[in-house]
Design goal:
This protein is α+β, with helices and mostly antiparallel strands. It has two helices and three strands, in the order βαββα. It has a three-stranded antiparallel beta sheet with strand order 1-3-2, with helices on one face.
Length: 71
């Protein structure tokens, strides 16, 4: 069996990102302290990739810390 595997290095704790992805109905797997893995099937469509990217973006916004305000 073959498949795609992508790892995304994240700054927030990996567990928070995986939880936020789950809340957005995107299944991911944590790896180490700061990597989130995406494991789509080889026959993934462009539409499914676009949807996953949108859900991942929403999940990352959930866990993003606001930038410090300039003094």
């Amino acid at each position: 069996a073959s498949g795609l595997l992508a790892g995304i290095k994240v700054k927030p704790p990996m567990g928070e990102v995986v939880g936020a992805c789950l809340a957005e109905k995107l299944l991911t797997v944590g790896a180490g302290e700061n990597v989130v893995r995406l494991l789509p099937p080889l026959n993934v469509t462009q539409a499914e990739i676009s949807e996953a990217v949108q859900r991942l973006s929403l999940a990352l916004k959930r866990v993003a810390k606001p930038a410090p305000k300039p003094a």
